[in-house]
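Dear colleagues,

As part of the handover before I leave the project, I'm documenting each prediction I ran so the next person doesn't have to rerun anything. This entry is a single chain, and its sequence is reproduced below.
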Amino acid sequence: MRRDVRILLVGEPGVGKTSLILSLVSEEFPEEVPARAEEITIPADVTPEKVPTHIVDYSEQEQDEEALEEEIMRCHVVCVVYAVDEQESIGQITEKWLPFINKTLGPDHQVPVILVGNKADLSELSSMESIIPIMNEFAEVETCVECSAKTLKNISELFYYAQKAVLHPTGPLYSAEDKELKPGCKKALCRIFAVCDGDNDGILNDFELNLFQKRCFNVPLQPQALEDVKAVVKKNITEGVQDDGLTQIGFLFLHTLFIQRGRHETTWTVLRKFGYDDNLELTAEYLYPRLMLGNGSSTELSHLGYQFLTMIFEKYDRDKDNALSPTELEGLFSTCPINPWGPDVNMTVPTNEKHWITLQGYLAQWTLTTLLDVHRSLENLAYLGYRYVMAEQDSQASAIIVTRDKKIDREKRQTTRSVFFCNVIGPRGVGKTAFLQGLVHRDLDTQRDLNREHLSKFAVNTVQVYGQEKYLLLHEIDVGISDRLSDEDLQCDVACLIYDISDPRTFEYCARMYLRHFQKSTVPCLFVASKSDLHPVRQDYEVQPAQFCMEHKLPPPQTLSVVGRVNKDTYIKLATLAAYPIVKGVHVLHPAAVWVKSKLRDAFPQRHMGGIQMKKKNVWISAGVCAAAAAVLGFILYKVVKTSNR
């Protein structure tokens, strides 16, 4: 909504433009009227709409046509003043003023015009018989007000209607010629209806209508008022009420009725509550709330974000099979301009046996989008109605977590992140695509049935890291015969260097990539030997993979096969490396092990007495207890490793 309103008064000399302005300000008719009033600003706190209002007078005696054009270009609403008792001034409305305004602003302008009949005290007859044909012919004319500067009749109303014409314009909403809502308005109201239809049954029941009333107008709808609304709709349009609830047709009719009865502000209040501007487009502030992103930070969905998205999934999963059919997915994104997910999404996330996206896959895709393009996530959360459904949240920014700088994670040797980005690097033909599909539980037989035209370079799914659920996002990089990676390719949480255990020429490529890009990098790396179901061969490189990893203080190569049931171990190890990176060739201990070590230090500090070492008896006791503690620590580490290898 505009932050101020600029009203321009034009008309023939002597019709009373200046008198109207002075009467409004002084609340009495001026005895002496200057040729032109100075621009007046009315403070926001004394205007009905609580918006500062500037009132500008035009004088043909003091201003030329160029000055008039400039004022018309600057104003938000034009009041064409005529004298009720002078038929000639009425004729000038269509012969001079409206054509001049349209010529200045262009034929498709959105500046509203109000016709103002002054000097109503001098005529017993209304001028409306002459004015109504003008209003029907010129769509930009919002309304007509008859008033009197001398008796102060309708003076306040005149400027209220002028304000209202700017803040709650009819033009974008309603076609007076067709007597129906304009397509853009219908589209916006249909989206609002879909967002408010919490159970997705095509009807707003009493609970949903009351919720709508409270969230848009901050007051509940009284039971009798609710029944009256439904009765009015049903009387005029039978299909507007069904099963004692308001249908979409009824919802649209209700707003048509509001506009026809001059209650444009009701419809505009609803539209602006849902983020629409004067052109019925969602505002940038609504779609993209401010988010503070620092260097080294990433973006993840918060608990509120996952909660909202789960609610939306359940709303559109009509058959409750925990998966979205193509029709259900289309319905889910019906409140968005387009479906933001292409056909490759079914290759990126877990699906059921029909290749329909499951709840797990749906949340995984949102996780991927939020990490890679958070503004797109914010936009689609807005379209889906996050602010309305999560009513206590100011914006969809509460659905997002901005993680701390990765440098802090490295200093603390562990991370608070829940989503890890892994670049999968290797020569062609080593099985990178199969490796990605394995993350979403597709073995080689299942992959053969997939549509290869929609293969994705991404795969995302949850993995367990020490009992905590994390998201691992794999991104396939195929640089061909080149061993150059871009700076963007190196911005990952962990790198997977994959080679074919049965092809002797593939490890050399991975070794070169490591030495060139990752040897001095802080990015942890894991070598993966794919196709382990085939016979292993000696690699054509100066050292073999295991020896290479040992020399560079890397984890040993992990073998992987996607034939039969896919083993999760490699994916878990990748996520674990990202969560607890290697520091100087040594894994950071699991938090439980770190805790035990700290307790041991607290319980058995090295003590000296006056520079003399403790008695041998105490030394032996301490040594025995430490040995027992070491056994406990070893058992814990054994359990941890065993758990992670499952």
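Residues 591-644 form one domain. Residues 584-601, 603-646 have pLDDT under 50 and may be disordered.

All the best with the project,
I.
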